[in-house]
Write a structure and sequence with these properties.
The chain is of the alpha/beta class. The chain has helices at 34-43, 64-68, 132-141, 149-152, 180-187, 192-201, 239-252, 257-271, 282-291; strands at 10-13, 17-23, 26-32, 49-55, 73-77, 82-88, 96-102, 119-122, 143-147, 153-156, 159-162, 175-179, 206-211, 214-219, 222-227, 297-298. The strands form three sheets. Strands 5-4-1-8-9-12-13-14-15-16 form a ten-stranded mixed sheet, sandwiched between helices. β2 (17-23) and β3 (26-32) form a beta hairpin. The chain is globular. The protein starts with 9 loop residues before the first strand and ends in a 15-residue tail after the last strand.
Length: 313
């Protein structure tokens, strides 16, 4: 018997963020966060999804992206919405200073009562947003995906800084996403392939690390790298959120890890050229994938990690 309204494949839990984006003399204010960039990318990649997010009541009516893409969303009221000022120091947007202006109330296990799904994605922005009890509750409900920034990026002296949390148990994590800086903070390694291997050694099943012009994936005994091919960086913000969510969507569709990564890399390359969430369709992704010949290459599996010693990329 076919269920009339089957449960979503992907459940995203995390705050939206009112972001100030500053580069040189230009300042843009827009709503962001993984639950915006990621949910749009996931649903446009074919996934059934649900979003659970928090914001101040006055801000909820302004969050149009969910309605435009008909994304099922549960809005939970918070005293404040998260807001972050991002000051970019380089044209490629790889180096930035993040200043927390406000933070939403934490999510609790009670916020997940009655929610069903196959993958529960902890898409937090700042440490404390998704406490470990809530993360454990998510892992009890389905396969667990995490963005590590929500567990190692914390407010300190007026800035958001990265600090590895040795109590964070990755043994139950099925899918993990980090950027190069976050991976280095957690593993001590600057080489993405070795860092991915280090995460695998901790029990993570599939590891996605974004870094500059490519993305690295580790799963089973394989490490792959796939290029990102944007023609410009006008939509650089949201790169990792878009890539990880579209990757999860294609894994839910039973694509192999390599095929899912190639699809996600092509989609993300399109998104990076235009500000805001991904606005294309699956046929656009397939055209881009073919035109740019987006394909993974195998990275020689590194030796088992013996220490947290940095290596040259």
């Amino acid at each position: 018997m076919t269920l009339k309204n089957p449960p979503p494949g992907l459940v995203m839990v995390g705050a939206v963020s009112k972001d100030e984006m500053i580069y040189q003399e230009d300042c843009t204010v827009l709503w962001g966060g993984a639950v915006i960039y990621g949910s749009v990318a996931a649903i446009r990649s074919g996934a059934r999804i649900r979003v659970i997010t928090k914001a101040a009541p006055k801000d909820i009516p302004t969050l149009n992206w969910f309605r435009e893409d008909r994304i099922p969303v549960t809005f939970l009221e918070s005293e404040r919405s998260t807001s972050i000022r991002n000051i970019y120091h380089t044209e490629d947007r790889e180096r930035r200073t993040c200043i927390p202006l406000s933070q939403t109330d934490p999510f609790s296990p009670k916020d997940l009562e009655g929610v069903q799904g196959q993958i529960f994605y902890a898409a937090g922005l700042i440490k404390g947003e998704i406490p470990k009890a809530t993360l454990s509750a998510m892992g009890n409900k389905g396969r667990l995906a995490i963005d590590v920034q929500g567990f190692i990026r914390e407010a300190r002296n007026g800035e958001l800084v990265l600090e590895a949390d040795p109590t964070l148990d990755l043994g139950r994590v099925d899918f993990l996403k980090a950027d190069g800086a976050e991976a280095q903070e957690m593993t001590g390694l600057t080489d993405a392939a070795r860092a991915a291997k280090a995460f695998r050694d901790q029990g993570v099943k599939e590891v996605v690390i974004t870094h500059g012009k490519s993305v690295t994936l580790a799963f089973e005994d394989r490490i792959l790298r796939c290029p990102l091919t944007p023609k410009n960086l006008g939509g650089r913000t949201g790169r990792g959120d878009t890539l990880f969510s579209s990757y999860l969507a294609r894994r839910l569709a039973k694509d192999s890890p390599a095929a899912a990564l190639e699809f996600a890399a092509a989609l993300t390359s399109i998104k990076m050229e235009t500000p805001g969430p991904f606005g294309g369709r699956m046929k656009d992704v397939e055209r881009r994938r073919a035109a740019d010949r987006v394909s993974c290459r195998t990275i020689c599996a590194p030796l088992p990690v013996q220490s947290k010693e940095s290596v040259t990329p």
